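so my prof wants the structure for this chain in the tokens format not the other one, which i didnt know existed until like an hour ago. anyway here's the sequence
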Amino acid sequence: MRELELKYGTNPNQKPARIYMKNGRELPVRVLCGRPGYINFMDALNGWQLVKELREATGMPSAASFKHVSPAGAAIGYSLTETEKKLYFVPENIGLTPLACAYIRARGADRLCSYGDWAALSDVCDAPTALYLKEEVSDGVIAPGYTDEALEILKTKKKGNYNIVAVDPDYTAPERESRDIFGVTFEQGRNNLKIGGELLRNIVTVEKKLPAAAITDLVVAMLTLKYTQSNSVCFVKNGQTIGVGAGQQSRIHCTRLAASKADAWLLRQHPAVLGLPFVDGLRRPDRDNAIDVYISDDHEDVLAEGEWQKIFSSKPAVFAREEKRAWLARQSGVACASDAFFPFGDNVERARKSGVKYIAQPGGSIRDDNVIEACNKYGIVMAFTGARLFHH
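here's what i got, hopefully its the right format
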């Protein structure tokens, strides 16, 4: 297939719409079910590049959850802890393969933003991954292949209209890429920068110790940023993103956004949140939304009389601000990466409040000394990568 007609473009009024190969070659993707749209394919192709590179960099099955051309989450296939299984609503009756764990963790990074996501998988989709994906609200999935059982499971989703795309894992994009804006064609070399631990050799802080696990987390963070709309900052822990701040004009706003999402992920693991007494039959999205409101300053929206009864079997106690601060103060070992340099030390000040211990950024600001000083103040390890990772 050299061309595929789409339902419409970015918006319903933008017709006609299609994807095709300018060089006459066949498309590197096949639609096995459904009818993906323009934004679907943008998420699918960006997501596939991310998980393919994650797989190559870490040697582990990888997954991403994409929304509006940025990852809501990305992860490698570390095993799930019992807390994570509860955190991500994992049914007891499904087996957990590394690929399934990767997607569950990618989706769990920011479950609110992953609502209606596009899933990207580095490996052939297996039945456990499909079973979990079947229960989530999702627009589609891209993978290098599907087992017969997984394909049959996914084809039952959305009354048989779930978007399932297979990608050629051996496809290599041209060295030059182009796009049109306002009738003007832009052309540039493809971003083939290889991201790995070698980018972290230039440690500029007093603290120099960068454990292997932290190196992996920083690689996950940098690769996520490579496919995140800029400006962007990413927080990672244990091989999964826990906060992605994308598309902000100000660097500190990126950091605040990523940190607030990381805080929400960390607070979801507090015993008061894990033990919330939800009423039977409450849908996953409703649980996610209730948790998000409960841990926020707007908690009265779900605890008010007449409201809590719709969500909980008994009224939970207020999650006090002091309790939240105490819980977050206990967190550590978080990795943080930025797609461009930190211009001020305020980014470090905010990041460390969410447990950040390791930072990777390009360096090159006229205030690098101020940023390094802030890291030294808190014993944070920071590497200058010399590599900017803008993505638009």
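also thought this was worth mentioning. The mean pLDDT is 96.
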